[in-house]
Amino acid sequence: MKKKLFLLLLLPVLGFAQTNETTSDTEIKTQPFNNKSRLFKDWSISVGGGGAFMSHADITSFYGGKVNWGWNGYVSLDKQISHTFGISLLYTRGETKQKAYLNDIAGVAHGHTKFDQIALIGDVNFSNIMRRVDNKSNFRWALHGYGGVGFLGYKTFLQDNAVLSKWPLYIEQKIDISSFSYIGGIGLKYNISRLLDIELRTMYIMSGDEEFDGGGWTRDAAPGYNLINDTYSDNAWLVNLGISFKLGRHQDHLRWVDPLQNAYAKTAALEEQFIDFKVCDKGDGDNDGVCDDWDRQLDTPAGARVDGSGVALDLDLDGVIDLYDKCVTVPGPISNNGCPLETAQPLVSKQVAIEEINKYFNGIEFELNKDVIRPQSFQDLNHAADIIKTLGAGDSFIVVGATDSRGSSAYNKKLSQSRANAVLKYLVEKGVSSSVLTAEGRGKEDLKYTECDPATKCPEWKNEANRRVYFVAK
């Protein structure tokens, strides 16, 4: 293959070297493969739309185990610079819908964000980068990666019926130099015809603003919606289905063409004419397709895939080449054929584990007067589950639920038992053995701050600390 490609590069020189005395009736003509050649379409217009979600923010589209669906649409003018890279001027408009619960003082806030973004993005065609040059068949699927910058304008609305004196809250950001933002994502394109492509695309908008979700102008403004998550950039997630109209008179679009593939095909007809031409001075001793002149690994095993410098591929970088690696994507020692050794997790002492688990149990949040765990507590519970699974099989523990002193003893006992059961169920779903856990609701009989009975004797932060779930040895 290298020989054929090198021959193609020499064609202009050989053609120029012909004299008037040549007896050949065929004149070799070449044309460089670049954008000036105008051999392919390189412009297109794309439109599409789909769902929009406020994903990484204080007030999100994912609340209470449900999805609050928004929408978005986009249009872009696309210019293909090479077969692997292009740029697009992208305009996106949409609306996200979101909810959040702050505390017992405020209620469930609901709102929306209407946004417009103008961005300049780069488009990398990964499929053309990774494609084999000796693949003679046309390809119709391609994976694209996108990334760029732009300006983001938005208008937000937020309503909390429990805080009537300050709500509803409106925030507006116009598109100007202060609305700088980022956008990136991936897309899977399918080549329908010489005129049309379709694409399934997911994009992620990083606003760089705390106000994008509508939580307030400042981080500490009452009642404190911008303090729900420790983030200073509210971000949106878009999922779209789009169509691209390829412009131009040529048969093929540049993003669906591999010039090396064409070179490989065209040199086949010239092979007999230059059969005695020697490309590799030192040959190709290991027959891996890379001349020994620039082969960095001269003894590549037969059948091994190699990179451009002739080195056998080792995808997981564990020292075992892919040809011999039985776990290609997971690192492992040579002694185990590139697969990881199954070793037991080191056990920690029960008391140390309980103290560590309670760090993650501290602050677990539930829906108001319900046993439904809020999504923001899932990550802490996942960490707790990982620690519990490292403990000895003979250990057993109690998941304790407790409340403050408000309400009747019977109601608090029932609510705390339900919440302890919910935590136990979540841990079991994450792989913790149900045989080592027991749930126990103690209601207001297990106050962390015993002086808070009645609750009016204490500040609210102490009452909140009394409403908890924690972990003890059985």
Task: Describe this entry's structure for a reader.
- An 8-stranded antiparallel barrel has the order 1-4-5-6-7-9-10-11. It has a 3-stranded mixed sheet with strand order 13-12-14. Strands 2-3 form a two-stranded antiparallel sheet.
- The N and C termini lie far apart (70 Å).
- Helix 6 (409-429) links the parallel strand 12 and strand 13.
- It is flat and about 90 Å long.
- Helices cover 17% and strands 30% of the residues.
- The relative contact order is 0.10.
- It has helices spanning 2-16, 126-130, 259-267, 350-361, 378-388, 409-429, 460-466, and strands at 43-56, 62-63, 66-67, 70-80, 85-101, 108-125, 141-159, 169-173, 180-191, 196-206, 235-247, 397-402, 437-443, 468-473.
- The chain contains 7 helices and 14 strands.
- It folds into 2 domains: 41-256, Porin (Beta Barrel), CATH 2.40.160; 350-473, 60s Ribosomal Protein L30, Chain: A (2-Layer Sandwich), CATH 3.30.1330.60.
- It is of the alpha+beta class and 474 residues long.
- Helix 4 (350-361) packs antiparallel against helix 5.
